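May I ask for a protein sequence together with how it folds?
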Amino acid sequence: MKIKVLSNWMTAWLPEHVAWQGAEFTRDPACRDYDWLLVYDEMPTGSPRELLACPAEHTILVTQEPPTIKIFPPAYTRQFNYVLTTHTPHELPHPHHRNGAGCFTWMNGRHPEHYLTAPEPEKTECISAICTRKLMKNTEHYKRFMLFTHLQEHLPEFVWRGQGINPLKYKYQAMDSFKYHVVVENYIHPHHWSEKLADAFLSNCLPFYAGDPALEEILPPESFIRIPLQDPAQALSIIRGAIAAGEYEKRLPAIREARRLILHKYNLWSQVLETIAGHERNPLAAPDPGRDCILGRRIVRRNPLNWPGILWNRVRLGLSGH
């Protein structure tokens, strides 16, 4: 089975080809022999139209940004038969809405297939974090920055890397050799967790975590340690106590189990294949089974009243050469 992947979101983090659980994911824009179409967040800016080479019911949208950063209009999302998202059904209504636990692409800097056979990295350093200087207050960026500033001032072993702070080329360089890693989500809501957490587990780190309040439902509770984002002093106390008590060594079996779940269940490729397997067991028709084209979000957003009427016909005729 071949799945074509289209995206405009940080395409450097989406590999050209991934072989996963017997399926092939390709980002080749010229591919026309695919079985399913996957759009990751946005259509490519330079090519915001895709004339479908698969049935309309074989289309999936995966959203990347939380609702505090990006809203996906129904005119865009209803082009797809399935939506994998951390938005709630109220925030992103869709007849085939799926909770996309772990559906974000990893951003650690290595090809995903590397981790299927990679040995555990040697741990020679203590604690790290990755964070930019973003200070937005409509998200958790500002609180995260203030927390990391406090840790840097009071925890000598704390290593803070990130754009505008202490740049690095690949994220794994700030995680592989560290036992602990501080992970703060930019949006805190049940069932929303990002690649920040997944990347830490892939490097066998024990995360100090501020994020998804329901995370214990899907990952071992012992595989991470919660810290209060709103109270840097208390967070520092928890971190110091855990390091002094050797919690990394004590919790290593749980960390390994969380890593196994990230590798085999809670990732972009497995989540997409699980959706496809569900469709094969119980095929669900697309909202518009006659659709033969997917348009970019910006195109649809500029013409919400005309979609899918006159605009649809114009685009379809243009693509078919009439």
User: Anything to note?
Assistant: The chain has a mean pLDDT of 91. Residues 141-154 form the longest helix (14 residues). The CA atoms of residues 134 and 142 lie 7 Å apart.
